[in-house]
Specification:
- The complex is a heterodimer of chains A (343) and B (534).
- Helix content of chain A is 64%, strand content 1%.
- Chain A has 18 helices and two strands.
- With 534 residues, chain B is an alpha/beta fold.
- Among the domains of chain B are: 250 residues, Rossmann fold; 105 residues, no CATH class.
- Chain B has 16 helices and 17 strands.
- In chain B, the strands form four sheets. Chain B has a six-stranded mixed beta sheet, with helices on both faces.
- In chain B, helix 2 packs across helix 5.
- The longest helix of chain B has 82 residues.
- Chain B is elongated and about 120 Å long.
- The termini of chain B are far apart.
- The relative contact order of chain B is 0.12.
- The chains are: A mainly alpha (343), B alpha/beta (534).
- Chains A and B meet through helix 1 of A and helix 14 and helix 15 of B.
Chain lengths: 343, 534
């Protein structure tokens, strides 16, 4: 028997526990998203979970890894939930499946599995879909539109698997542009920010519906920080970076650049700040590094939304910062005890 | 009493489990049938035996003398007979045996005549240090560095602060706590002696705030003796590893011990409270270090508590005296659960640095959760009391990128175990760091050896080259000389030969060779050896 060396004492914390808490924190926001956008969201979630489970098991099998401990670590479930939360609710069934294929097989396992992937798997999956299937990925259900048109579970299933809509509904009737999309198009047509924001798509601070979902994402994230599941540095960096950049431009030219609240509460910024950029595997590792990582992502989100080719930039911003993480780590090592410097 | 405390980065809160061993009064351990006294119970060179097998010794008699400056003697804990000097199992992480003097107690308890120095304040620091050195005192907190060496700051170094470490931050252990509560006078006396030996300006005693009784006892002792100006008892937060020397120094003084340096570099010297008590006994009573207080505890021990034990008592014997083990007992640890070492053989003795015997049950410590990959969550970096990035160290240790591990300051790791404790992936992080350190040391040894071999080789090649050149130069010189004087020499040689031949002929004609006793012969023989000398 090998000599057992110290430390002999361990805390009961578990990776799977961490992953579960992350999912719990997102449940209220998901429920509200369901309320606004309908059954498609739950369908997507089931599809990403099922496909993710299959891909994960297959890859573990191929790589000769034990199935039980890895399938139960919860990391795949987090990826699936995040991807489902980011996807438009009304999609053909194969879109979430292809997203998970890229997320789990390519972004995760081909890089060595949990802990070794340099890029956030959910965001890789999302970006692949965004680039490859722009048509499917651009139409969102209008907030509350599914109830208005009585578009139920059966209709969602039917659309996902056969592409058929009920006879009384056209795709344009229940889907439309996202607020970010509308803002982008509107500004492109030389409209002012306030003109765009007067459209019915917009609510109190940002997109109608989206703003409340994002506020719930924010509260879930704050709960995670409170429970010390995620550090505060990444979200503060990201939201701060986005807020400061958006404010600066908005102050200089309020007609051409949307305000900071619109940016914070539209699209994926909140989800990115608390649930995606905080992915420990792909984020910077020191607290100072996380601030820089977050701030970089926040600035990039604004840059991509404002001057880039896509309405939202959260996924791209996070992936770009994933690339920078090792370098950030190298330059942000904390001062070690006894290595000079002041307190 | 309002000293501003500083804080060290990280640290963790642990369930302290101290009540387990505090429920019973101190017990005196009975003498076992044999005492095993390893020659190495301290950091530094092993002591050299002064006794032979079969020799009778008295309690307090020095049985092994220190070897070199950083070393400590060993004394007989009781009177008896030396029955062996041989390799015995010792408590060491390697689980190997080491040379030990084995003493069979005679139960008579005859002692050498102890020489008390109650007038120690009149002694100069150097004399005091020699008394302490001769008493075999080493750090009793666990590291076992010879105390006399630590009390010698060097001629040009002023000691600002003497710190007595009463933090006792590891769970379960209560031997220092017991000592502080029950024998505060010994600790304060020892503190005064140490302060005198160091000529330190101030003396602080740092105790974690989960030991209010110990704090109160020491404070009242300080007040009783009117020492409030000289010694300050400071309550520090309960946070593991507060009792780490570097951490306690930081908290009490705000100073950081420079990396790879000693506390004396910032004018601080740190000793354990139990060490102070034994310094008091050595100087004021003349009694060398032959016994100590040991906590026997854990849910695997039937009657946990504190024991005053003779050094050298087998751990299994001591555990038996504490009522033996409970049903779930799984293994024995020397020290605490965070930094202690597993004792494989119960016949290993209690040594000077053994503060605790922890008998654990199956479900007390072990965590059966599987090891998962590191997800770089950074909990370890948050817990690290040295501000390292354990996740990076783990990465580089695992991939054997030892240079990078050193870039990330591997050697500042104090192996406190905080990182591994908090790791949600259950990674044996400290083991990886030990492995990396050992590999780097091995590589350095190898490098030194190969450097030496290379230097030897280069020297040899250079020497051979030099010799070759010299030889060539000589040959050339000879050839040149020959070429220059060839004709003359040859003619002369031929001429000489002809003349010798002529002379021989003439001689042969004059006298027959048989009757010729050549008178020069002995002289010629005598000359030959003289020439061979060259």
């Amino acid at each position: 028997m090998a000599v057992i060396s110290s430390p002999h004492l361990h805390s009961p914390a578990k990776v799977s526990g961490v992953m579960l808490q992350v999912i719990y924190a997102l449940v209220p926001a998901l429920l509200l998203e369901f309320w606004f956008f309908g059954w498609g969201l739950l369908l997507n979630l089931l599809l990403t979970l099922a496909a993710g489970y299959l891909f994960e098991a297959a890859m573990l099998q191929l790589r000769g890894r034990p199935l039980a401990p890895f399938l139960s670590d919860g990391s795949m479930a987090v990826t699936a939930v995040l991807l489902a939360a980011a996807l438009p609710p009304l999609l053909p069934f194969w879109v979430p499946v292809v997203g998970m294929l890229f997320a789990i097989v390519i972004a995760k396992h081909l890089y060595g599995g949990l802990g070794y992937n340099p890029f956030n798997p959910a965001m890789v999956g999302y970006v692949v879909l965004l680039i490859s299937f722009p048509l499917e990925m651009s139409g969102w259900v209008a907030p509350g539109g599914w109830r208005l048109h009585d578009f139920g579970l059966g209709d969602s299933l039917n659309y996902a698997f056969s592409g058929q809509l009920p006879p009384h509904i056209t795709l344009d009737a229940i889907t439309g542009a996202t607020p970010l999309d509308a803002m982008r198009t509107g500004l492109g047509l030389a409209k002012t920010v306030s003109e765009v924001e007067s459209r019915p798509l917009f609510g109190l601070f940002a997109g109608r519906g989206f703003e409340w979902v994002n506020l719930l994402v924010l509260s879930g994230g704050l709960w995670l920080i409170f429970k010390r599941i995620i550090p505060w540095h990444t979200p503060v960096g990201l939201l701060g970076g986005l807020f400061v950049t958006a404010s600066l431009f908005h102050l200089v030219a309020p007609d051409q650049f949307a305000g900071p609240l619109f940016h914070l509460l539209s699209g994926g910024a909140m989800l990115g700040a608390f649930f995606i950029a905080t992915d420990p595997v792909t984020c910077a590792t020191s607290n100072r590094g996380r601030l820089i990582f977050g701030a970089g992502a926040g600035v990039l989100i604004f840059v991509i939304r404002t001057w880039g080719g896509y309405p939202d930039g959260t996924a791209f911003a996070v992936l770009l910062m994933n690339m920078a993480a090792p370098t950030i780590d190298y330059y942000t090592q904390p001062r070690v005890y006894g290595h000079g410097g002041s307190e | 009493m309002t000293r501003t405390l500083h804080r060290f980065h990280g640290g963790i809160h642990l369930p302290d489990q101290k009540a387990l061993s505090l429920g019973r009064p101190l017990r005196q351990a009975a003498l076992p049938s044999e005492l095993v006294l390893p020659l190495q119970q301290h950091i530094g060179a092993a002591a050299q035996p002064l006794v032979a097998v079969g020799e009778r010794v008295l309690e307090g008699q020095m049985v092994a003398r220190p070897e070199g400056f950083v070393s400590a003697p060993v004394h007989a804990p009781t009177s008896g007979t030396v029955i062996a000097i041989e390799a015995r199992p010792v408590p060491h992480p390697s689980g190997l045996s080491a040379l030990a003097i084995v003493l069979q107690p005679d139960g008579e308890g005859r002692t050498v005549e102890y020489q008390p120095h109650s007038d120690w304040s009149a002694l100069d620091p150097s004399t005091l240090r020699n008394l302490i050195r001769d008493a075999g005192i080493v750090g009793l907190g666990g590291a076992g560095f010879p105390t006399a060496v630590k009390l010698n700051p060097g001629p040009h170094t002023a000691v600002e602060t003497l710190i007595l470490n009463g933090a006792e931050c590891e769970p379960y252990i209560t031997c220092d706590q017991w000592l502080m509560q029950e024998r505060p006078e010994e600790i304060i006396s020892g503190a005064l002696i140490m302060r005198h030996a160091l000529q330190a300006q101030e003396c602080l005693i740092g105790i974690e705030d989960n030991k209010p009784a110990a704090i109160a006892a020491l404070r009242s002792e300080v007040a009783r003796r009117g020492l409030t100006e000289a010694i300050e008892v400071v309550e520090v937060p309960t946070r593991y590893p507060m009792g780490g020397e570097k951490q306690l120094i930081k908290v009490l003084t705000g100073k950081e011990v420079p990396t790879q340096g000693l506390p004396i570099a910032v004018g601080v010297v740190c000793h354990n409270v139990a060490t102070a008590a034994s310094v008091h006994r050595a100087v004021e009573l003349g009694e060398p270090l032959i016994r100590r207080i040991v906590t026997v505890t854990g849910h695997g021990a039937a009657q946990p508590g504190n024991f005053e034990v003779p050094l050298g008592i087998p751990m299994g014997e001591l555990l038996a005296q504490a009522g033996g083990t409970t049903a779930g007992f799984s293994r024995l640890i020397m020290g605490g659960p965070m930094m202690g070492i597993t004792v494989e053989q119960p016949q290993a003795p209690v040594i000077k640095t053994a503060n605790c015997l922890l008998a654990v049950t199956d479900d007390e410590l072990e965590r059966r959760a599987p090891v998962r990959p590191c997800i770089r969550c950074g909990s370890c970096a948050e817990a690290c009391p040295v501000s390292l990035l354990p996740q990076q160290l783990y990465w580089y240790a695992k991939s054997k990128e030892f240079d990078r591990a050193q870039d990330y300051n591997l050697f500042d790791c104090i192996e406190c175990g905080c990182c591994a404790f908090v790791c949600p992936s259950n990674l044996p992080l400290v083991q990886y760091y030990r492995y990396a350190k050992t590999e780097i040391w091995a590589q350095e040894r190898e490098k030194r050896a190969s450097d030496q071999a290379r230097r030897r080789h280069e020297y040899r090649v250079a020497r051979e080259e030099r010799e070759r050149l010299e030889k060539e130069a000589r040959a050339k010189k000879k050839a040149a000389a020959l070429a220059e004087g060839e004709s003359d020499d040859k003619k002369a040689a031929i001429q000489a030969a002809i003349e010798r031949a002529k002379a021989k002929k003439a001689q042969a004609n004059a006298t027959p060779p048989a009757t010729d006793p050549p008178a020069e012969q002995p002289a010629g023989e005598g000359a030959a050896p003289a020439e061979e000398k060259h």
